[in-house]
Amino acid sequence: MNVAAPNVESSLSSTQMLSIAVRVLKSRVFIGLFVAGMATTAFFVRRSKAVYGSETVLLYRPRASLYLQQADQDESKRASQRLQDMLFERSRLEGLIKEFNLFPEILATRGLVEATEEMRLHNLKFDAREGSTFRIWFETDSAKTAQAVAARAADMVLEEDARSRKRE
User: Comparing C-alpha atoms, which of 10, 15, 114, 131 is closest to residue 69?
Assistant: First the structure.
């Protein structure tokens, strides 16, 4: 036996809806939840550390090529991989960590290998942009340190790239 539900439309006027909203906003439960939410937000904002990031953008100019644009794209991909490998080389990361005294807590408890992994996974970034443009990015809790490390990392990569080009 099929019984159709009655077609009941209950519509509240805007005045009635406003009245209900005002009652909810005035209720002690709502006010308590609102105050608790604000206090929780303030607590976490005060406890969180500021994070600063700095980036250095490199424009890589491949050697003059007689090939078509496809050759330039291939060269950019190879350059991207080569520069990224240079940047994330363990000895280079260890040098940055020692030079700027990064990750002192990790160094004290877990050692240099773990500090380099922390840097590689969380703080130092490399990505290829359009064409032959590459970005090196470093994040930390100090703006000056972030800027200095990003600049030094870029210098190290450029120096190594120049040395490798001379060998070729």
Answer: 131
